[in-house]
Amino acid sequence: MKNFINELTSVWDFFKDTDKPIILYGMGDGADKVLREFDKLNIKPSGVMASDDFVRYQQFHGFTVEKLSDIESRFDDFVIALCFASQLPDVMAYIKHVAQRHILLVPSVPVFGDNIFNESFYRANEENLNKAYELLEDEKSRNVFEDIIRFQYSGDLKYLDSCTTDKDEAFKNILKLTDEEDYLDLGAYNGDTIDEFLGYTDSRYRSITALEPNLKSFKKLQEHCADMERVNLWQLGSFNENRVINFNTKSGRNCAIDSEGTPVHVARVDTILCGKKITYAKLDVEGAERETFEGMENTIRLFKPKLNIAAYHRSEDLFALILQLKTLNPDYKFYLRHHPYIPHWDTNIYAVDSGQ
Description:
By secondary structure, the protein is of the alpha/beta class. It has a domain at 176-310: Vaccinia Virus protein VP39 (Rossmann fold).
């Protein structure tokens, strides 16, 4: 059985054992999650920083949020825990600039769920990680898989740098979309991923079916698609049953199931489609990918659509989604790619039936 982490030090052990001041970089949900885990491990941060444009010397968990220059004036040496995500080129460039000046690591906290990617999690899931790894189709996918595991475990950005590729490579070499696609967009947001799809099909297609549960985003989606033909839009979330559940709808694209929130209708994809053919589906459903697969089992088994799946919301997604899909369609070939994003968001599983 392959040992993906080798002699790496866990990012959590690093922060637990360091004698240098620890500075949190970022505010918000990610920092809240890191601080909760720090509390469990009795790790005491010494300050909070943000990018210069965001600093108003506001308070965050009892700390005054400072600029990097403020931190550098207070400490001769320190380490940084990055606690936010971005795909903006200038923001990612600045993060790397900071990482050249100071030790900067990224504690891996999941977008959804409670499973922290630490040594205990890795050991408990080592067998399934290996099973998923063996199902990957090409060397590039296996390299990405290894690097993403090592990044989540160590928090070292170098592992992201070594496995990042542009989306063009995946769309052109793996998905190979044609002008005859029946496209299913699950988590369509404001229409941006419909535009992505159209960009790779030269705006030609047979049909588009799109689901978006957030009312505000759905209205934007309707406006965006108002002049398009053969488009069916549903203000729904995808799930494994037809019912009403609570959604946290405050986070734009990242709206998700929550114990408290706005009641939203969710449905099985098989129920919505009623046997309609789908040739390509994108899933970015904020942690409900496994339930969505359960609700589109018939569609997958019957039509074997090409799939583009977000695989970063939960710590277990990297292996659990591949293993689940393998049971639904044993003929799927699986690929893994990470596209420009810090941390490992926009890590996607691409599944293509071997008969295509």
